[in-house]
Amino acid sequence: MGILSARQIKVLQAVIGAYIHSGEPVGSRTLSRSSAFQLSPATLRNVMADLEDEGFLCQPHTSAGRIPTDQGFRFYVNNLAGMAAVSPAARLHVREHLEVVGGRLEEVLRDGVLTLAQLTPYVGIVSLPDFRQMIIRHIRFVKLHERRILAVVVSVSGAVQNVLFDSDTNLTQDQLNHSSNYLNALLGDLTLSGIKRKVLQEMASDKRGYDELFKQVLALSKSFFAKDPEQQSDVMLDGKLNLLEHPEFADVERMKNIFRAFEEKGSILKILDGALSGEQLRVIIGSESCCEDMRHCSLVTAEYGREDRTLGQIGVIGPTRMDYSRIIPLVNYIADAMSRRLQN
Amino acid sequence: MGILSARQIKVLQAVIGAYIHSGEPVGSRTLSRSSAFQLSPATLRNVMADLEDEGFLCQPHTSAGRIPTDQGFRFYVNNLAGMAAVSPAARLHVREHLEVVGGRLEEVLRDGVLTLAQLTPYVGIVSLPDFRQMIIRHIRFVKLHERRILAVVVSVSGAVQNVLFDSDTNLTQDQLNHSSNYLNALLGDLTLSGIKRKVLQEMASDKRGYDELFKQVLALSKSFFAKDPEQQSDVMLDGKLNLLEHPEFADVERMKNIFRAFEEKGSILKILDGALSGEQLRVIIGSESCCEDMRHCSLVTAEYGREDRTLGQIGVIGPTRMDYSRIIPLVNYIADAMSRRLQN
DNA sequence: CGCTGGCACTCAAACTAAAAGAGTGCTAAC
DNA sequence: GTTAGCACTCTTTTAGTTTGAGTGCCAGCG
User: Fold this and answer.
1) Strand D contact at CB of residue B64, distance < 7 A
2) Those residues with Cβ within 8 angstroms of residue A49's Cβ, 6 or more apart along the chain or in another chain
3) Smallest CA–CA distance from A158 into chain B, residue
């Protein structure tokens, strides 16, 4: 596992390039013919054998060409892949479909993931922000029926969450309105749990005395916060059909695995959140995801959010044989466009 | 195309039963051996040839056994399929997962479709009610930002819809509350469009004079109703993976077609709404759906709703070779359970 | 020492041939 | 009306063969 020579790198790049293009194992002869090497197949064979020893290439079976390993792709992505500019057509598409005005958070995300599914032959994916980490702008209570109450919680980023709960006492809508007003006056750059804490504090400090309205708000908040908003986090997918077009998924068994992973979104979420370590862009190649079902897939994701605050990840899932040099800039571009739109 | 003799019917039933069981074309010998016929293969061959002439059976190729045509299945479902009782295990599952308390409409539907996906090896499907046809219980306005307003519309059946719109004037939350109260006082067993009409009428009749609040409500309603709630109708699916287990979908091409139909939900919706003609239960077999992609699938759906009012359809999608005598009662049972739960 | 041509070898895929198996249609006889 | 028998069809399976792409290694060359 020494360092790679310049020539080895050049060969590795050529092999991966050819493989990304064709999907077929690439052999020494093809390589010798096609590219800028002035080397004979035999020489290339030697180089490729070395690269295999180092773990960058492998063979599906003796006497087939070489295909890149996950490690090979990793090296390629980190060091070799020249990043293509986002095509004018893609820019136009984004301008028309993504860079429009406002809308609820969920709609913005849907637009983003749809755009990715349309601009790439892969699956668009976006993780919905954890509502519990969002800064709340509004809480309104709506009386539904007797003590049954609907709380409408709106975050600054435009996410709307409806929470259904039962109050201890039977309040009128007017009383609920007053409570809402009271609570909203308290709000300020806090998340749901922050608000909860603040309300508890106020209760403890008792500084407002035993004002009737205050007691009402307290009781209400208690019932409300007892019921944690359920949808803690989620992902949205689009363009699953795109995957069916790739030859590597013609195998039914492999297909099943991936669709299973899609259906139980938990595992994908785990991958996405796996390294929240704050890199703006992440590429997860094959088995790096540690998810058996996704062994043959790569993810390219970028963070989106408002200013300092990261809301979630958006990107694509495709075969490990992915056109990284086109996809990486594109995902970046779209994450930016979405973040800009969320600024409003 | 004469009428079928008793014996022909008995043979048809046996063939379809065997085919549903095995998924393989069934030949005369198998039939003769297995079942209660005292007939030789040769005789059965004659009968089967007749049934083929009548269009109830067909052969994948000369010298294969017979498989039922869509018409054959149709006859079977209409006349032959004995309806099995819903199994105790299924009843228990429904009791535990579906017959629980309340929840928003969407959650109830999700529970229903999930239950179907778990109790059958097919895809659970439910059509969301068209919000525009629902009777509205509440409308509340929430001020988001300047003139940007969120309307929370709640139907009697517990569906909640959030509509984002811009008001012409900049109102305070208190003003919005008053407008909400005013509007809700007007409400009574009306759909959204009914309310819209009523508001317009009030406006025309002018009987309230030029009261300030009234003018406010009018202006607000105008902006609100200008923006039709978008999600006009939709379907929810669950258990797509189940389909992958069936041998008839091992063919990748066929799979692709069906998943395409799933992805663009419009076509499925069209099938579901196709015959809203008010039968409580519907079975759509293969090409009867008039959807090329769904040629190899059957749908079994039942209406669900509250009392007199139908809200939508719930059921399953599976291969035409479906265990109708088990599925039909089950779908019925679950639609009933859901309807009961929605009563509250 | 690095590069190359040559050669033996491996393995998957494609093709061919043959055989097996399931099932049919038809006819003649019961 | 029913059945046994037979010839025929067509798929599936198996085995064997060929082809082609590719490798590894070695010996020789610059």
Assistant:
1) yes
2) none
3) B144
Q: Do B137 and A144 touch (CB under 8 A)?
A: yes
Contact B287, B74 (CB under 8 A): no
Task: Out of B102, B142, B241, name the one closest to residue A154 (CB).
Answer: B142
CATH H superfamily, domain A88-129+233-343: GAF domain (3.30.450.40)
pLDDT in tens, A273-289: 876 667 889 999 999 98
Question: Where are the CATH 3.30.450.40 domain residues in chain B?
Answer: 88-128+233-343
The gap between B64 CA and D11 C1' (Å) is: 8
CATH code for the part of the protein at B88-128+233-343: 3.30.450.40
A165: which 2 tokens?
């709960």
* Domain B132-226 fold: Enolase-like; domain 1 (3.30.390)
Q: Alpha-carbon dihedral of residues A87, A89, A94, A100, nearest 10 degrees?
A: 140
Q: How far is the CA of B64 from the C1' of C22 (A)?
A: 7
All residues of chain A having their beta carbon less than 8 Å from the beta carbon of residue B259 are 240-241, 244
pLDDT at res. A286: 93
In the predicted structure, residue A124 carries a pLDDT above the cut 90: yes
Q: Regarding the domain delimited by A6-80, which CATH topology (the fold level of the hierarchy) does it fall under?
A: Arc Repressor Mutant, subunit A (1.10.10)
Write out the residue limits of the CATH 3.30.390 domain(s) in chain B: 132-226
Contacts of B101 in chain A (CB under 8 A): none
- The answer to whether B125 touches B236, Cβ cutoff 8 Å, is yes
